[in-house]
């Protein structure tokens, strides 16, 4: 029963305007070669930073500058802005969903009546 309700909720989220906008923004990013290049650089630098920190080292100033510059360029590009706005809207929707689930759990825990 709970799993079925969760699947229904997932279906409704997938059909929401927020989620559809995110999917469109992701498609726009995939079609934008410049945005893809920036994402690849950001991913590479992130992996390098993780490896350095695992060794107890810090990224060089040049690496940090390249990361910040590339991230800023991505965030200000049309594809990047569209994605970030859409991702933020889906995140807000999911926060509302999680809050509503939490409230439902609290109400259910306080109720002695079992409903299905």
Low-pLDDT stretches are none
Our estimate of the beta-strand percent is: under 5%
State the major sheet: none
> Into how many domains do the coordinates divide?
2
Rg from alpha-carbon coordinates: 20 Å
Q: Mean of residue pLDDT? A: 94
Helicity range: over 70%
* C-alpha termini separation: 7 Å
How many strand segments?
0
Number of helices: 5
Structural class comes to: mainly alpha
Mass-distribution shape: elongated
List the helices and strands in order: HHHHH
Please give a structural write-up:
With 116 residues, the protein is mainly α. It folds into two domains: 1-32 and 78-116; 33-76. 85% of the residues lie in helices and 0% in strands. The chain has helices at residues 2-14, 17-31, 33-54, 61-76, 78-110. Helix 3 packs antiparallel against helix 4. The longest helix is centred in the last third of the chain and has 33 residues, at 78-110.
List its salient traits.
single chain, 116 residues, mainly alpha, 2 domains
Structure at a glance:
By secondary structure, the chain is mainly α.
Q: What order do the helices and strands come in, and which of them pair?
A:
Blueprint: H1 2-14, H2 17-31, H3 33-54, H4 61-76, H5 78-110
